[in-house]
Specification:
The structure holds two protein chains of two kinds.
Chain A: E1 2-7, E2 10-16, H1 23-40, H2 48-53, H3 64-79, H4 96-113, E3 119-123, E4 126-130, E5 139-144, E6 156-162, E7 166-171, E8 173-175, E9 178-180, E10 193-200, H5 203-215, H6 220-225, E11 227-228, E12 231-236, E13 240-243
Antiparallel strand pairs in A: 1-2, 2-3, 3-4, 4-7, 5-6, 7-10, 8-9, 10-12, 12-13
Chain B: H1 2-23, H2 34-40, E1 81-82, H3 113-117, E2 122-125, E3 129-130, E4 135-143, E5 146-154, E6 164-165, E7 174-177, E8 187-189, H4 196-209
Antiparallel strand pairs in B: 2-4, 3-4, 4-5, 5-6
Classes of the chains: A alpha+beta, B alpha+beta.
Chain lengths: 256, 210
């Protein structure tokens, strides 16, 4: 059973394929995402992060989850030599590059704590999978075609099969004539990499490293290569993909 | 004189190639393992001495746990480890990796801070290895968790000069042209939905269309 709701400015999708999929499970997940949105959305004036960004109080004086996200962000910043940084440069913070994966991960834990085995949770193109799909097979996830995003039916360029993993894609979204970089909130002209998909042990890890590695440009895929337990698929503006040496293990080969 | 120079440069190239073989740049990383160096040689001249005290988990430098490159997990359990043991690497001159924080994020290549970060500080000496033309022995220095120096302690040449190598070779990764597929899938991972402002209005428009 699958449900979608628009929260955090993006579609949040939950599919549960256990024999019993009580409606309150979906509600619990969506409520959690709503809470995350209301706490961490820089687009909401009433959010806690907005209050921090207005200087009303410091992150140290924030809620437990706020302090946790800041601590995780600091750790990620160190691990990525500063390529992941929630400080925007003008004195404010934008933790969305970490919060999304973190929230999906927490939502998945929430379902697991309630005994759900077969599900996926997706928010804005980042996904955590568990168990098997409706056909009793490992979850089949595709990577979106980076140049055909406007099509009604999502165009895909690669399919992977995942067993209890997380997958996250960082990239540039092309809107008309402008290229909008959601990470840097800028329109860089010279970007070579248009998307980087990372598969990791869970979506929190995949998301934070996809975010950081995307900021590294072409060297990002090398960064992922050097991470044990992570694989990546990086697409440049010419439509050439570079993959890490273990990525092939995930590729779905259709023998139709 | 020219012939000697030519011979020397040929030998030197071979040494570098062989050294990189032994270093594990091509995938066999046994040279990094201090424990192996004790096991495999009887005449090894160096003993690794980590400059940091042993961790609480009880492992000591590279001596007891069999590998100076392993690391313990942090509290949250999700910490990336070096991939050097698993990945096949091919000598490439594509990328130089500085060990400091890059000043200009857009221009610099990053150092793989995650992968080498948890190497224990110290100087690790590999086994004396047969490089066909003679022996090769490498010492690796780790400072601040990163490999900062690779030194030949021995190589097939009359003079025992050490040669320092600062570049760490990066792997050459497989590439392909992307091609549209039509597989039946459960979900799609993409970057489209990260633009909050756009998606807000897009989703609201969609909601109206339902």
């Amino acid at each position: 059973m699958k449900q979608t709701r628009n929260i955090m400015g993006m579609p949040v999708m939950v599919e549960i394929d256990d024999k019993e999929a009580a409606p309150e499970l979906f509600e619990a997940v969506f409520s959690y995402f709503t809470y995350v949105d209301e706490t961490f959305s820089t687009y909401k004036e009433t959010s806690e992060i907005s209050a921090i960004n207005r200087g009303e109080f410091s992150p140290d004086a924030g809620s437990k989850d706020m302090k946790l996200v800041f601590a995780l962000s600091e750790e990620t910043k160190k691990l990525t030599n500063g390529y992941f940084d929630i400080a925007t440069g003008d004195g404010t913070y934008d933790p969305s590059g970490l919060v999304k994966g973190w929230a999906i991960f927490n939502a998945a834990q929430l379902l697991k704590a309630r005994g759900v085995k077969n599900f996926y949770v997706e928010a804005g193109g980042d996904i955590e999978v568990s168990g098997k799909n409706a056909n009793g097979e490992p979850w089949r996830i595709s990577i979106e075609h980076p140049f055909r995003q406007h099509e009604a039916k999502k165009a895909i360029i690669k399919t992977v099969v995942l067993n209890d993993k997380g997958i996250a894609t960082s990239g540039i979204y092309k809107r008309g004539a402008h290229i909008y970089d959601p990470i840097r909130k800028s329109t860089p002209a010279g970007d070579v990499v248009v998307s980087l998909t990372v598969i990791g042990p869970n979506v929190y890890e995949a998301d934070r490293f996809a975010t950081a590695a995307f900021a590294m440009g072409q060297a990002g895929i090398l960064f992922i290569e050097l991470l044990s337990g992570f694989e990546g698929y990086q697409i440049n503006r010419d439509g050439i993909a570079t993959m890490t040496s273990g990525f092939h293990r995930y590729i779905f080969e259709s023998h139709a | 004189m020219k012939k000697i120079l030519l011979s020397f440069s040929l030998i030197f190239s071979f040494i570098v190639y062989t050294a990189f073989q032994r270093l594990g740049v091509f995938g066999n990383q046994s040279v990094y393992t201090a424990q192996e160096s004790i096991d495999r040689t009887t005449n090894q001249s160096g003993v690794p001495s980590p400059s940091v005290p042993p961790k609480a988990s009880g492992t000591l430098g590279g001596l007891e746990d069999g590998s100076g490159l392993e690391r313990e997990e942090d509290d949250d359990g999700f910490v990336p480890r070096t991939a050097l043991t698993q990945k096949t690497t091919i000598l490439s001159t594509e990328t130089t990796l500085p060990s400091g924080v890059p000043a200009n994020k857009q221009a610099q290549t990053p150092s793989p801070a995650v992968s080498v970060r948890k190497y224990r500080d110290g100087r690790y000496t590999g086994p004396v290895t047969d490089a066909y033309y003679g022996n090769v022995q490498i010492a690796v220095s780790v400072t601040g968790g990163s490999i900062t120096d690779v030194q030949f302690l021995d190589y097939p040449h009359d003079r025992k000069n050490s040669i320092r190598i600062n570049n760490y070779a990066m792997p050459v990764l497989k590439q392909e042209a992307i091609a549209a597929q039509s597989a039946q899938v459960d979900a799609v991972s993409g970057a489209t939905a990260t633009s909050e402002a756009f998606i807000q209005s897009f989703a609201e428009a969609l909601a109206q269309a339902k």
